[in-house]
Amino acid sequence: MPETEAGVTVLTAFHDLVEDQPSRPLFTFVDDQGHDELTITAGGLAASAEGVAAALRDWGLTPGDRVALVYPPSPDFLSALTGCLIAGVVPVPVHPPRPFRLKPDLAGFGNVIDGCGARVALTNTAYDRSRTLGSVTSMLSRDTPRWPKLKWYRTDTIAPARVLAHDWHEPESPDEPALLQYTSGSTSAPKGVVVTHRNLAHEVFANARDLGLGDGARAVSWLPQYHDFGLISMIISTLAGNGHSWLMAPLTFLQRPAVWFEVMSRVGATHVAAPNFAFELAVRKTTAEQRKRWDLSTLRSVLSAAEPIRPSTVDNFFAAFSVSGLRPETFCPAYGLAEHTVSVTVGGKSRLWVDRTALEKGIVLPRPGEDGVEYIGCGRVTKEGARLLIVDPETRRRCAPDRVGEIWVDSPGKALGYWGDEAATEATFRARVDGGPDGEFLRTGDLGFVHDGELYVTSRLKDLIITHGHSVYPIDVEESVRDCHPLVRPGGLAAFGVPGDEDERVAIFVETRRDRVSPAEIEEIADAVSARVHEDHQLLCRAVVVGKPGLVLKTTSGKVRRAACRAAYLAGTFDGTVFADAQGSSTILP
């Protein structure tokens, strides 16, 4: 059985589970109506995964080879992922290109395949047929994007093996790559993060302790299987024996959020997790009558991560679902990133109001009231062997207490680096603090501060707008204008900096709730946005761009790509109406 210097690995834990409790249910797949479709036991998953592992060996793949996993949400993905781990092959979960929208999707897909050097792609029959049909349709329309050169294999046609009949791969080192996790690409092109067996074990077993996972835990998730949040926090955690997970397609939740809550209520869920936008959508798309019917009193942890956590979202969500028996103390803010496997801190319990003007200068000055900005804490460092520092990104020296700086982390959860990019690995994963402490740290690229021992995250470093010596946080600008006009779509905002005569100026993309909006309404929206930015931040916008849904560019996991929005604005490659301020530039107003 595979073991590492650090002890038990995820694969070891799964092996033991199969030996001791082969009939234990691990995953249940839910259809778009919220009904259970298929339950997979530990033994059943091991049998299908061993079949895949044997096929991988027959196809000439050896430990260390990369294999793309290109699946719609399905049990077949679980078998392929686990089969790769058993064979020692490095799985690369990839967002499957949409068969009838190949042109916009294949470029990113091709970059991932070229970057990781995969020669083989695993999929299932349903997706393979649809991608083939999509390619034919593209050819007929003379729009022929090229698939990268890959050998495609359908794993749902592979017969299950006899459980524990084959040797399972033993990593030669705990730092051997277990999988490649591609970043969301919210601020740059996606990079392949090398996640090791040590990383996975450290993450999964620490979170089991911090969140109370294990026997009796019941999670309900719609999170994408190809991103770290859903892949590791839900799927791989369950694989290691941390409970029973009910899984549904992301599209099911997006089209009808009520399904998520119906399943939670039906199965007595104890743990759920989602980004901030999901809790907003849940309030908007469910009714008071529905909430009265649901019983959410069994929930022990409602985890929010993967994007900035808005206090107003949290308040509205728990107020709306109080009739369902949902308790505010279940709220569990967290902070993490793919470069640190998934999480850095978990279980924030505090809120803090800080002076807005002082914060723009990088100073944390607690001050509740109209002039303040409210932040939700993302928890403390609880993982064994972890260190978190706030560092000046320019001087690389530790910041004084209650100062904003870049978040640097060192722990066994820090990934090995970026696949095939030694320069980026050196710059990001091996940073050293001038003046100590010793050691190599991960530069997260996120700004934040520590107050009373708890981490607060303020912005992405690359997204920060510096104007007239003030640091303007895009998320604060976006938060200000969310409710400035009834036609503004709350999830469709992107503030970013654009070049000015001396320093940066502020521009903002604004999506409307409807596709069709009159010119007069568009002008009203632009005026309302400009007025609110002026009122809350003493800034004039260089430009307000108003457009229909889709104007704001996002990653496949729903994160706003502010850098891409900025590039589109500067290149003029966007579909929206531009309103510029009278002076033609933003200025700090007295």
TrEMBL record:
PROSITE patterns: AMP_BINDING. It comes from the Bacteria. One of its GO terms (molecular function) is ligase activity. PANTHER family: DISCO-INTERACTING PROTEIN 2, DISCO-INTERACTING PROTEIN 2 DIP2 -RELATED. InterPro entries: AMP-bd_C (IPR025110), AMP-bd_C_sf (IPR045851), AMP-binding_CS (IPR020845), AMP-dep_synth/lig_dom (IPR000873), ANL_N_sf (IPR042099), FAAL/FAAC (IPR040097). One of its GO terms (biological process) is Actinobacterium-type cell wall biogenesis. Residues 18-419 form the AMP-dependent synthetase/ligase domain. Gene3D superfamilies: 3.30.300.30, N-terminal domain of ligase-like (3.40.50.12780). Belongs to the ATP-dependent AMP-binding enzyme family. This is Acyl-CoA synthetase (AMP-forming)/AMP-acid ligase II. It comes from Amycolatopsis xylanica. Keywords: Fatty acid metabolism, Ligase, Lipid metabolism. Residues 463-573 form the AMP-binding enzyme C-terminal domain.
